[in-house]
Amino acid sequence: MRNNLETIPNIYDLKKIGAGHDGIVFKYGNRALKLLKYDIHTREYKGLMIFKKAIFFQQNLSLKRIENPIDIMLDVNGVYIGFVTNYLDDITSQEKIGTPRYKDTGQFTCGDLICAARELEEDFDNLTQNNVLAKDINRGSYIYTTDFIHLCDMDKYVIQNGGNLEQLNRINLQFVIAKFLYFEMLKSVDLSQSQKNHLSKWVRKQSHSYNYFDQLEEEVRYDYAMPLCDYAKEKVKILLP
Question: For the whole model, what pTM was predicted?
Answer without folding.
Answer: 0.93
